[in-house]
């Protein structure tokens, strides 16, 4: 299988869709100019807004979202595949006015070829006093997704999903050789857990793990960890932005490494049925 040049986009997404697109577009152009054929953006690429009233104004349906439309056109113009790590859009579920936190995979013709709604919503009370209730605004998804690309199968996850290893195992067993983890990690959890979790998921699955991140102090007052990272199937950090500034991270994926890692430790074939604990 041919090697795949990729780029992860690290952003500090503003609090309006127009500003968000103006922020991410030059980074994507830089990535394409650098030779990337698959480009990945972080969670919440279209806006980051804490205030419920502001979110309600920005929120629209997927097919009406200006950032999604602009990024589809950009992928077509540049001739690249683009993973919108996630966009916050109307879920379309009657009787539930919460949004979806949705990954969208765009092909080089600008078509949406796969979508995934974040399965695990971030409801936590951190030791620092930070309190997050993503479930109040986001309707969780109900299905795992593996998408076909010209280079192999890509498993889709988002941020807090990284803490649920059974999801990653299911994606790998469904044929994924690479898994995306677009994120907007908090600083306390990012500093403590981000790299360890990414490496663990890569080791457990024998997959490339691709993690583009939000970074720094945002307009709405939140801080995100940054440190966008590419981890190889043996668990080694292949590339990393060691800061929380916007930027572009390049890497080249060799899928023969996936085969070698899985042949060395064929853990995906060693599942056994077992009785539950007493």
Instruction: Name the CATH architecture.
Output: 4-Layer Sandwich
Looking at the structure, the CATH topology is Nitrilase/N-carbamoyl-D-aminoacid amidohydrolase
Shape: globular
Strand percentage: 25-35%
Average the pLDDT over all residues and give the rounded result: 96
Question: Number of helical segments?
Answer: 6
Q: Could you give a short account of the major beta sheet?
A: 6 strands, mixed
Strands of the largest sheet, in order across it?
5-4-3-2-1-16
CATH superfamily: Carbon-nitrogen hydrolase
Q: What class do helices, strands and sheet pairing give? A: alpha/beta
- Stretches where pLDDT is under 50 for at least 5 consecutive residues are none
**Domain module count:** 1
**What is the string of SSEs from the N terminus onward?**
EHEHHEEEEEEEHEHEEEEEEH
CATH C-level category: Alpha Beta
Number of strands: 16
Radius of gyration: 18 Å
Assembly type of the chains comes to: single chain
Q: Gap between N and C termini, in Å?
A: 47 Å
Helix content: 25-40%
What does this structure look like?
- With 278 residues, this protein is of the alpha/beta class.
- It has a single domain, classed as Nitrilase/N-carbamoyl-D-aminoacid amidohydrolase.
- Helix content is 27%, strand content 28%.
- It has helices at 17-33, 52-58, 66-78, 165-173, 187-205, 256-264; strands at residues 4-10, 38-40, 81-90, 99-106, 112-117, 123-125, 131-133, 145-149, 152-156, 176-180, 208-211, 215-217, 223-225, 229-231, 237-240, 247-253.
- The strands form four sheets. Strands 5-4-3-2-1-16 form a six-stranded mixed sheet. It has a six-stranded mixed sheet with strand order 8-9-10-11-14-15, covered by helices on one side.
- The chain is globular, with a radius of gyration of 18 Å.
- The termini are far apart.
- The mean pLDDT is 96.
């Amino acid at each position: 299988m041919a090697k795949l040049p990729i780029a992860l986009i690290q952003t500090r997404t503003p609090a309006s869709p127009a500003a968000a697109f103006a922020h991410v577009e030059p980074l994507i152009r830089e990535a394409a100019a650098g030779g990337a054929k698959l480009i990945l953006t972080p969670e919440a690429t279209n806006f980051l807004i804490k205030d419920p009233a502001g979110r309600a104004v920005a929120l629209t349906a997927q097919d009406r979202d200006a950032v999604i439309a602009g990024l589809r056109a950009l992928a077509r113009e540049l001739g690249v595949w683009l993973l919108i790590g996630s966009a916050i859009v109307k879920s379309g579920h009657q009787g539930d006015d919460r949004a979806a936190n949705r990954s969208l995979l765009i092909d080089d013709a600008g078509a949406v070829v796969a979508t995934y709604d974040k399965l695990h919503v971030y409801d936590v009370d951190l030791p620092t006093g930070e309190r997050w209730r993503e479930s109040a605004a986001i309707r969780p998804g109900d299905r795992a997704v593996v998408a076909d690309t010209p280079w192999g199968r890509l498993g889709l996850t988002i941020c807090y999903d990284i803490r649920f290893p059974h999801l990653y195992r299911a994606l790998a067993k469904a044929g994924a050789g690479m898994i995306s983890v677009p994120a907007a990690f908090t600083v306390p959890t990012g500093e403590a857990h981000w790299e360890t979790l990414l490496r663990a998921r890569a080791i457990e699955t024998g997959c490339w793990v691709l993690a583009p991140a939000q970074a720094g102090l945002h307009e709405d007052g939140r801080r995100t960890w940054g440190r966008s990272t590419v981890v190889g199937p043996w668990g080694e950090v292949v590339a990393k932005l060691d800061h929380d500034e916007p930027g572009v991270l390049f890497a080249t994926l060799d899928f023969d490494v996936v085969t070698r890692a899985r042949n060395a430790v064929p853990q995906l074939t060693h599942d056994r049925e077992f009785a539950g604990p007493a």
